[in-house]
Design brief:
Shape: globular
Radius of gyration: 17 Å
Distance between the termini: 37 Å
Number of helices: 7
Oligomer: single chain
Strand content: 15-25%
Order of helices and strands: HHEHHEEEEHEEHHE
Number of strands: 8
Helix content: 25-40%
Largest sheet: 3 strands, antiparallel
Number of domains: 1
Strand order of the largest sheet: 1-3-2
Amino acid sequence: MTSNPINTKGSAEKLATKARNSISKYCYSECKSFCCRKGYLVLSEKEADIVIGKEISNLKRESILTITKDEKYMLNLGAKDKACPQLKEFKCEIHKDINRPNACIEFPIFLWKNKKIHVSDRCPASREGLFYKYLAEFKSLGYDIR
């Protein structure tokens, strides 16, 4: 009789979700949703429709939204003082929507193939070490932190 190996991918996904959830109050009160106000958000056409909706043509005209070579939409957050259209008073209006963009769901911890994890250095919580205890757990699961 053999034992079942530990499902490290499932464990890592649960751990990443737990780590992301651990900073929710920090995101709202300290960081003020920096990730939704600065940088770029790459979206599929479906995600762009959810996030931007009727504003797509206006944002294209203002060069805040561009289409990449692989036909993704790239929203320039912070351009002309524009934050994500779904951000209201530092709270995401679509946070509980299961169809919200993958980048939004995964930020700031991204699980990659081959047991690699990227923690965004753009996230103030990451820079302040708020994921430290979770990173140790990822390492114990055999993941390489990038």
